[in-house]
UniProtKB/TrEMBL annotation:
Protein name as it appears in the record: Anti-sigma factor
Transmembrane helix recorded as keyword: yes
Organism lineage string: Bacteria, Pseudomonadati, Pseudomonadota, Alphaproteobacteria, Hyphomicrobiales
InterPro entries in UniProt: Anti_sigma_zinc_sf
Domain of life: Bacteria
Alphabetical UniProt keywords: Membrane, Transmembrane, Transmembrane helix
Residues spanning the membrane: 81-102
């Protein structure tokens, strides 16, 4: 088992091991639950990326990024720039998310897709944490609401979801480069079975965004919603129907004066 390295684990996550290698890693993970939890997190993140960006991955590489064209241009440059161009081609070939960065601006994912991706990424990172799942605990709800409201420059309530069987654990501040101010709030809840739900809340972007969007991401479901003031993405390992029922309670409390949630 000493032969199980970080590279071996990454190959396992990406499905690049032969049957013998997979069997060895599975036995290693069974004996090392902390490593198994990290591997499960990586697998969930891979599932989310594939689901959100599969259309981009299925498209042909643009002519401007073809190997021949880059190589031809590189002959007129020094070795340093040629190496950088080759690295860009490799990035397009192996990374779906990276591929979006190398496309023209007109082809980038919509704002809702980008915020969903950010929300799911933050969800998968923090729901597995025990001691550091949140930055400020739910027992400091008034302080948390005031702090996050100030950072997001809006009046942010902490939705009470006890009627949905969810206990408020607390929240944290996160970066959100796609929205004004560059900040997002993540609020976390937990049900009686230990499953966790997160709300990823941002000010409304300064561009058009859809009213709602629903995405199935492996074991999780993500529901995006926006109004004239903010956006919220709810992520949890629940069915779409269950998430939509919870959404009604969430959005009624986030924006009491609004029209409420409609899918």
């Amino acid at each position: 088992m000493s032969g199980i390295t970080r590279d071996t684990l990454m190959a396992f996550v990406d499905g690049h091991l032969d049957p013998t290698g997979r069997t060895e890693v599975e036995a290693f993970l069974a004996a090392n639950p902390e490593v198994a939890a990290e591997v499960a997190l990586l697998q969930r993140q891979n599932d989310a990326i594939r689901t959100l960006y599969a259309p981009a991955g299925a498209e042909p590489i643009p002519v401007r990024l073809s190997v021949d064209r880059i190589a031809h241009s590189g002959r007129r440059r020094n070795n340093r720039f040629l190496t950088q161009a080759a690295a860009a081609v490799v990035l397009v070939g192996v990374g779906l998310a990276g591929g979006w960065l190398l496309r023209g601006n007109a082809d980038t994912p919509g704002i809702a897709d980008r915020l969903i991706a950010d929300a799911v990424s933050a969800h998968t990172v923090y729901v597995l944490e025990k001691r550091h799942a949140v930055e400020v605990g739910g027992d400091e709800e008034e302080h948390l609401s005031s702090w996050l409201s100030n950072r997001l420059q809006t009046n942010l309530a902490m939705p009470d979801l006890t009627a949905s069987g969810l206990t408020f654990l607390g929240g944290r501040l996160l970066p959100a480069p796609d929205v004004p101010g560059g900040k997002a709030a993540q609020l976390m809840y937990e049900d009686a079975n230990g499953e966790r739900l997160t709300l990823y809340i941002t000010p409304r972007p300064g561009i058009d965004a859809p009213r709602t969007e629903l995405a199935s991401l492996g074991a999780d479901t993500a529901l995006f919603w926006s109004d004239d003031m903010l956006t919220c993405t709810i992520t949890a390992p629940y069915s779409a129907d269950k998430l939509e029922a919870i959404a009604s309670a969430v959005f009624a409390q986030l924006n009491p004066s609004g029209d409420g949630y409609e899918i």
